[in-house]
Amino acid sequence: MTRLGSLIEELDVEVGENAGLDTSVTGFAIDNRKVAPGTVFGAFQGLRVNGEDYIPDAVKAGAVAIVARPEAKVEGAVHIAHPNPRRLFALLAARYFAPFPDVTVAVTGTNGKTSTVELTRQLWRMMGHKSASIGTLGVTTSVDQVSTGLTTPDIVTFLSNMSGLKREGITHAAFEASSHGLAQYRTEGLPVVAGAFTNLSRDHLDYHGDMDSYFDAKMRLFDEVVARGGAAVVWADDPWSDKVVERATKRGLRLLSVGVKGQALRLANRTPTQLGQTLEIEADGEFYKVNLPLIGAYQAANALTAAGLVVATGGDVAKVLELLGRVQPVRGRLERAVISKAGAPVYVDYAHTPDGLRAAIEALRPHTKGRLVALFGAGGDRDAGKRPLMGKVATELADHVIVTDDNPRSEDPSAIRAAVMAGAPGAEEIGGRRAAIAAAIAQAGADDIVLLAGKGHEQGQIIGDRVLPFDDVTVARECAG
Ligand SMILES: CC(=O)N[C@H]1[C@@H](OP(=O)(O)OP(=O)(O)OC[C@H]2O[C@@H](n3ccc(=O)[nH]c3=O)[C@H](O)[C@@H]2O)O[C@H](CO)[C@@H](O)[C@@H]1O[C@H](C)C(=O)N[C@@H](C)C(=O)N[C@H](CCC(=O)O)C(=O)O
Ligand SMILES: Nc1ncnc2c1ncn2[C@@H]1O[C@H](COP(=O)(O)OP(=O)(O)OP(=O)(O)O)[C@@H](O)[C@H]1O
Ligand SMILES: N[C@H](CCC[C@H](N)C(=O)O)C(=O)O
Ligand SMILES: [Mg+2]
């Protein structure tokens, strides 16, 4: 049984007089509809609504304490007041849900988070640790994968999942820290021993406004989330890398930079092979050769970042680099779905930003003898400014481009396509993703390659409020058969 008083011990918070600090706490919630008797309710001001408006309903449902700004009106429950209620709520919830896996690391960046946490999980596992990852693919262990819906789930789901993993015996966990998640304190409270940065490029400016604010949201990982004395693993070859190094060093974190300009793991050479690539890596003055069984410069970057995290948490460099030769592909990231009747390989990839599209097309180029056909769309209710930029990158780098639908959500799909087409001269526009995939595969010859970008592992097409079953890999197989 957890007492409310023990949760707030030694914290700098205000509680009202006669506060019921002896009351026992039975859970945490940030949505009043999930409050049960004994719950601590976090009332936050959101983008859509003000959570403080739901305080009376939460109290009626049995909330024993409300974490909210000092200005919020609370009657009938303890008011735990703090100017930054999201942060305080995370701290209290972490005290409630503890213990967590012994070693926890986080990955941020515009692209590559999912791949990096997944590869980190695999490397740890091969080293004999019981490991897990949390992110876009859900909660993944060696025996299970459960979807959570968001890349960085809400703080209560996150901490209860982490606590559940510990109960299952997981000792090592890697999670994705999205910019939304960091800005909304969705992954706080537990000790994070290392953080990694993959890259930064345009995305989510609908939410963050401009690139500097987007960068700052991500930097909370190094400024605040990684524990004091922890490590920062930084991909060194991104235009933003030096700034990240500066922030991490200023905080006093132990730096491991990786990449062509990296110091801890220096990528000295990279040669694509038919089914993967050969990497030459310099570490501590020694050279190592790795036959990475994944294609694409971007996946080499993510593999090195993952290796950096494993080394930062105690892994032996030589052993970790050797194990890179045995990693499995990540679902929906340059996944070969099928080879068409004509003989064209069809790849599914999760590229959904201009930079991601560039990375995916460049990854496939060395494997293309003939034409590279790229198909993609852009998601509705997301950064609209990236749409023409995605069109531009694709038409510049692919031989033929088909613009179709990604999750339109509440938007008109033809308007989204028009915005992409505005940056994509010469592209073919085909509404309806299945029809577009069929057309892409039908026009590819034996030497060509087809890239279906944007949805990766996703299992549904979100149209309005409905999620219709849709899986690029399955549809590609159906169209190729
Ligand atoms: C823009 C955004 O990130 N919104 C998320 C955020 O909303 P918010 O804090 O602004 O909340 P709000 O809806 O205004 O509500 C305010 C508060 O009132 C509460 N509430 C609300 C209604 C009610 O009836 N009762 C109630 O108590 C809410 O729980 C919330 O605490 O907090 C909500 C509760 O956890 C999330 O569901 C919601 O995610 C929405 C659905 C979403 O689409 N998010 C996407 C953009 C997202 O987060 N994506 C990232 C990035 C992926 C990437 O890496 O590229 C991700 O991590 O998945
Ligand atoms: N290191 C990288 N550099 C550039 N592009 C990348 C990199 N890693 C992945 N990508 C591109 O981004 C896509 C998504 O990769 P991944 O799912 O690993 O990223 P993510 O950061 O988790 O994305 P999300 O923001 O949706 O969670 C890939 O399919 C690929 O096209
Ligand atoms: N984490 C990203 C995923 C985008 C995937 C793409 N298929 C889309 O729906 O835009 C987002 O929520 O913006
Ligand atoms: Mg992800």
Keywords:
peptidoglycan synthesis, six-stranded mixed sheet, Protein-Tyrosine Phosphatase, Chain A, 481 residues, 16 helices, 3 domains, binds 2,6-diaminopimelic acid, Udp-n-acetylmuramoylalanyl-d-glutamate--2,6- Diaminopimelate Ligase, Chain: A, domain 1, binds ligand UAG, binds magnesium ion, single chain, 33% helix, binds adenosine-5'-triphosphate, UDP-N-acetylmuramoyl-L-alanine:D-glutamate ligase, globular, cell cycle, eleven-stranded mixed sheet, alpha/beta
Helix and strand arrangement:
Layout: E1 2-3, H1 4-8, E2 14-15, E3 24-25, E4 27-29, E5 39-42, H2 55-60, E6 65-68, E7 78-81, H3 85-97, E8 103-108, H4 113-126, E9 131-135, E10 138-140, E11 145-146, H5 155-167, E12 172-176, H6 179-183, E13 192-197, H7 205-208, H8 211-225, E14 226-235, H9 241-250, E15 254-259, E16 265-272, E17 277-283, E18 286-292, H10 297-312, H11 317-323, E19 335-339, E20 345-349, H12 354-364, E21 372-376, H13 386-397, E22 400-403, H14 413-421, E23 428-429, H15 433-442, E24 449-453, E25 460-463, E26 466-469, H16 472-480
Parallel strand pairs: 4-5, 5-6, 6-7, 8-12, 8-13, 9-12, 13-14, 14-15, 15-16, 20-24, 21-22, 21-24, 22-23
Antiparallel strand pairs: 1-3, 2-7, 9-10, 10-11, 16-17, 17-18, 19-20, 25-26
The protein binds ligand UAG, adenosine-5'-triphosphate (ATP), 2,6-diaminopimelic acid (API) and magnesium ion (MG).
Adenosine-5'-triphosphate (ATP) binds at residues 109, 111-115, 136, 151, 176, 178, 198-199, 298, 301-302, 333, 349-351, 355-356, 359-360, 456.
Modified residues (N6-carboxylysine): 218
Binding site for ATP: 109-115
Organism: Sphingobium cloacae
